[in-house]
Amino acid sequence: MAGSLESPRDGLVTFLPHRLNRHPVVVRGLTADELWICAGLSAVAGFLVGVPLAWLTHSIAMVPTLVVVGVGIGVFAGGGFLRRQKRGRPDTWLYRQFQWRLALRYPALAAYVGGWQLITRSGWWTTRRQRSSTSIRRGAA
Q1: Sign of the CA dihedral running 16, 22, 26, 29
Q2: 113: closest CA among 48, 37, 29, 43?
Q3: Residue ranges of E strands in 14-134
Q4: Comparing C-alpha atoms, which of 125, 85, 120, 88 is closest to residue 101?
Q5: What is the per-residue pLDDT across 42-60, written as a single tens digit (0 to 9) for each?
Q6: pLDDT, tens digit, for every residue of 72-123?
Q7: E-assigned strands of 25-96?
Q8: Alpha carbon 26 to its chain's center
Q9: What are the sequence ranges of the domains in the chain?
């Protein structure tokens, strides 16, 4: 009897939160994936600067020091830059922009990041509903 009193919608969520499937912002407007990429690239840059400097100063401690400094500067500067780039755009804009640039500049690498799915045609699009120049001169509609 209790089952007949229940409506078919009981027990179902009648709304979906707006930001349910978005990645949360971790630091300075970066999501976790973006933070790892930014920190990794900054660490590599710090390592590449630290190795020659360690050789010049005869101090191996320069390498980890510049890696840590590079990550700090990279996350601070990269977070601000990416936050400005992403402002007001859809969640997937950054990744699609990366795919699009790879598809245009490096077509061989684009296959590995899904760039082959993007439309890369450039030119004029038309619906073929334009009046010809002869019909405009005659005054015909």
Answers
A1: negative
A2: 37
A3: 25-27, 30-31
A4: 120
A5: 999 999 999 999 999 999 9
A6: 999 999 888 888 888 888 877 888 888 888 888 887 877 777 776 777 677 7
A7: 25-27, 30-31
A8: 15
A9: 23-87, 89-118
